[in-house]
Specification:
This protein is an alpha+beta fold and 358 residues long. It has two domains: 5-160 and 264-355, no CATH class; 163-260, no CATH class. It contains eight helices and 23 strands. Strands 11, 12, 13, 14, 15, 16, 17 and 18 form an eight-stranded antiparallel beta sheet that branches. Strands 3-2-20-19-23-10 form a six-stranded mixed beta sheet, covered by helices on one side.
Length: 358
């Protein structure tokens, strides 16, 4: 967030004039040397390949109301140039989106079995504005889709958070799309902040670190990820007292306040990494993409714990010498769970590419 994105794009393209450049604002980055949450932290990964192996398309005007239609349009454009897609990466705005609709839009074109990964941009955890960059342009409501079609690549993913229900549950009693109007019959923002012990004048930035809400998962999905709920972040409040979720929300949805459990965070990650290494067959990855919730950085874990948790991810996959690794602290993460593409918040999500053997 400390960079002028236009200047950064200009500098990158002066060094790589023939390359497509995509990126977004984040609350910190993770690379082969660990996490960096300095205001001017910047992480880059170069992807090379033939035109039919790596492809990019983008759009503007990506909001909660347009997420499904624009995501489907991105997928159709990508499919024309890359009919043999093996996985796609979606980066979208972080404030007003409906990422379940976005995933559904992509799947309506490319099918539900194609892995989708990525996440949403963030700011410095204020919930005010996020930025997306494509080539020479900078957007606040932009989204881009990157297609990977190399037939020799294999894709593996995992997701974990380590939160537990805090014993407070609220029912959505009025909602439209990704906007929640009332909880338990009361104005949503006031009811939510009251449950957190905060005044209704609190900003989204005040609530993001302690204010995770969760929706209970079916038992099979809970067993797979090691957590009972899928988490949601509330990134924006409206003047009328409603708030915005990053997914659509039906009336009757029960939102549980969640609290982090540091011991559970580390224990769950250790289990997920063991499973991930088994699925990769112990192969050294070609590359790893990571999306992490901004609240899981300095707002949640101290520096020592944060460095330890990154090392606990990198060491099982690469050993002592870490390979290509690009991670971001964003507002949300897209990862498969139960074989389905799903949107998450407050998670650590990894997407590992290995090279097919033989």
């Amino acid at each position: 967030m400390g960079h002028d994105p236009g200047s950064a794009l200009k500098a990158i393209r002066s060094e790589c004039p023939g390359a497509r450049v995509v990126g977004c604002s984040v609350a910190g980055v993770i690379g082969r040397d660990g996490a960096n949450e300095a205001l001017r932290a910047l992480a880059l990964m170069a992807v090379s390949g033939d035109a039919e192996e790596v492809s990019v398309t983008h759009t503007d005007g990506f909001t909660g109301a347009t997420s499904r239609t624009l995501a489907a349009s991105l997928a159709r454009t990508l499919q024309v140039g890359s009919p043999a897609l093996r996985s796609v990466m979606l980066i979208a705005p972080g404030i007003d989106v409906a990422m379940d609709d976005a995933i559904a839009g992509i799947e309506s074109v490319l099918g539900p079995d194609l892995p989708i990964f990525g996440g949403t941009a963030s700011d410095n955890m204020k919930g005010i504005a996020t930025y997306q960059c494509v080539d020479d342009a900078v957007y606040q409501q932009g989204a881009f889709l990157i297609g990977f079609s190399d037939p020799t690549l294999e894709f593996h993913s995992t997701v974990t958070h380590g939160f537990v229900a805090a014993g407070v549950e609220m029912e959505v009693t009025s909602a439209t799309g990704n906007r929640v109007h009332t909880l338990d019959g009361k104005p949503a923002w006031a009811a939510y902040t009251n449950a957190l012990g905060l005044p209704a004048t609190a900003t989204p930035g005040d609530t993001i670190p302690p204010g995770a809400v969760g929706v209970r998962l079916p038992d099979a999905l809970a067993a797979e990820c090691g957590d009972s709920h899928i988490l949601r972040v509330i990134t924006h409040r409206e003047p009328d007292g409603s708030f915005i979720l990053p997914v659509t929300c039906e009336v009757g949805t029960r939102l549980s306040l969640m609290r982090r459990d540091e011991e559970r965070i580390f224990a769950n990650l250790a289990t997920r990494m063991t499973e991930l290494v088994e699925r990769t067959g112990g192969q050294r990855p070609v590359a790893v993409f990571q999306t992490d919730c901004g609240a899981r950085g300095r707002l949640m874990l101290d520096r020592v714990s944060k460095e330890e948790i990154v090392a606990d991810m990198q060491r099982p996959l690469f050993g002592a010498e870490t390979g290509p690794w690009l991670g971001m602290y964003g507002f949300g993460e897209i990862t498969q769970l139960g074989g389905r593409n799903m949107f998450h918040n407050y998670t650590t999500s990894l997407y590992v590419f290995t090279r097919r053997q033989g």
